[in-house]
From TrEMBL:
<dbReference type="InterPro" id="IPR000023">
    <property type="entry name" value="Phosphofructokinase_dom"/>
</dbReference>
<dbReference type="GO" id="GO:0046872">
    <property type="term" value="F:metal ion binding"/>
</dbReference>
<comment type="similarity">
    <text>Belongs to the phosphofructokinase type A (PFKA) family. ATP-dependent PFK group I subfamily. Prokaryotic clade 'B1' sub-subfamily.</text>
</comment>
<feature type="binding site" description="in other chain">
    <location>
        <begin position="214"/>
        <end position="216"/>
    </location>
    <ligand>
        <name>ADP</name>
    </ligand>
</feature>
<keyword id="KW-0479">Metal-binding</keyword>
<dbReference type="GO" id="GO:0042802">
    <property type="term" value="F:identical protein binding"/>
</dbReference>
<dbReference type="GO" id="GO:0005945">
    <property type="term" value="C:6-phosphofructokinase complex"/>
</dbReference>
<feature type="binding site" description="in other chain">
    <location>
        <begin position="170"/>
        <end position="172"/>
    </location>
    <ligand>
        <name>substrate</name>
    </ligand>
</feature>
<dbReference type="InterPro" id="IPR012828">
    <property type="entry name" value="PFKA_ATP_prok"/>
</dbReference>
<dbReference type="InterPro" id="IPR015912">
    <property type="entry name" value="Phosphofructokinase_CS"/>
</dbReference>
<dbReference type="InterPro" id="IPR022953">
    <property type="entry name" value="ATP_PFK"/>
</dbReference>
<dbReference type="GO" id="GO:0003872">
    <property type="term" value="F:6-phosphofructokinase activity"/>
</dbReference>
<feature type="binding site">
    <location>
        <position position="103"/>
    </location>
    <ligand>
        <name>Mg(2+)</name>
    </ligand>
</feature>
<dbReference type="GO" id="GO:0048029">
    <property type="term" value="F:monosaccharide binding"/>
</dbReference>
<keyword id="KW-0460">Magnesium</keyword>
<feature type="domain" description="Phosphofructokinase">
    <location>
        <begin position="3"/>
        <end position="278"/>
    </location>
</feature>
<feature type="binding site">
    <location>
        <begin position="21"/>
        <end position="25"/>
    </location>
    <ligand>
        <name>ADP</name>
    </ligand>
</feature>
């Protein structure tokens, strides 16, 4: 391997820049040429590819977002799109890829490897934490911290007015942010996509907490949950508790931004180094992750298909602490 292309794809995540920097610096350390592929697979198709030098990656470790930019490419899902992308890579002489992103992005890397044999290494870059083969994905810790900071502020005003807040957090089909932020902010209840919480049991819980003189309550709702959106749940609960002043806050994309935490910087740095060294050792079509502080390479198909389960013990802890 002589020339490695690096790209970020899908939803950006804090720590992606740190991962790019680590991969590129490691490439230079081993005298490889490193290429930035801009706007993910979209840029690969449109030939938005540039050779990187050390100045390109100076002072990016501490910045949120991704300086390579990101996109969700529909064209790459087609065989014609992937053919164009392959031709561009060949013209640049790029002989390996590092793809930083979530399950959709890693699926793309796997497909590309299957079709064209381009050695591909995935890095888990998503705030959702929904990839197997790593204890945490790059950006998850930062997103949880951001959510908790925001919920703490909501707590101040909720307490001042004795209000009930429904706070919607991100996580598409996964409840990891909701559970982490919910436990960390002493939420009254946490509703996640993996479980369906009957409205009646939520209402009973809120009633018993009100009796226990807990006049402000915060319920965390993961987007895409089976019980409905935060607004839908709030509307239903209002019918049972008409006397309660209820508000809804959707944290949204603020959870995707911001400087990465120390945890995410370390994770991204270790995985960036592992990505290049793994490729040099012939590890292809795998994702580098960190399990119990050790680098582990998991076949991409396993990382994306083996749905990581929310920790039952986390749910138990959340329940004990909110009863
Ligand atoms: O996958 C990361 C994520 O932030 C999800 O939590 C969320 O559902 C989705 O991306 C939002 O995507 P977009 O920014 O394209 O609206």
């Amino acid at each position: 391997i002589k020339k490695i292309g690096v790209l970020t794809s899908g939803g950006d995540a804090p720590g992606m820049n740190a991962a790019i920097r680590a991969a590129v610096r490691t490439g230079f350390y081993y005298n490889l040429e490193m290429y930035g592929i801009y706007r993910g697979y979209e840029g690969m198709i449109q030939n938005d590819i540039k050779k990187l030098n050390s100045l390109n990656i100076t002072h990016i470790l501490e910045r949120g977002g991704t300086f390579l930019k990101s996109a969700r490419s529909e064209e790459f899902k087609t065989t014609e799109g992937r053919k164009k992308a392959y031709t561009n890579l060949k013209n640049h002489g790029i002989d390996a890829l590092i793809v930083i992103g979530g399950d959709g992005s890693l699926t793309g890397a796997h497909l590309f490897f299957q079709e064209y044999g381009i050695p591909a290494m995935g890095l888990p870059g998503t705030i959702d934490n929904d990839l197997s083969g790593t204890d945490s994905t790059i950006g998850f810790d930062t997103a949880c911290n951001t959510a908790i900071e925001a919920i703490d502020k909501i707590r101040d005003t909720a307490t001042s007015h004795d209000r009930l807040f429904f706070v919607e957090v991100m996580g598409r089909d996964a409840g990891f942010i909701a559970i982490n932020a919910g436990i960390g902010s002493a939420a009254a209840a946490i509703l996640i996509p993996e479980n369906k919480t009957p409205i009646e049991s939520l209402v009973e819980k809120l009633k018993s907490r009100t009796k226990a003189m807990k006049t402000s309550n915060i319920v965390i709702v993961a987007e895409g949950g089976k019980s409905g959106s935060a607004q839908e749940i709030a509307d239903k609960v209002k019918k049972y508790l008409p006397y309660y002043d209820i508000k809804v806050t959707i944290l949204g994309h603020l959870q995707r931004g911001g400087a990465p935490t120390s945890f995410d910087r370390l994770l991204a740095s270790k995985l960036g180094v592992a990505a290049v060294e793994g490729l040099m050792q012939g590890k292809y079509d795998v994702m580098a992750g960190l399990i119990n502080h050790k680098v582990v390479f998991t076949p991409i198909v396993k990382a994306i298909v083996d749905d990581k389960k929310v920790d039952e013990d986390d749910l138990r802890v959340a329940n004990i602490l909110s009863t």
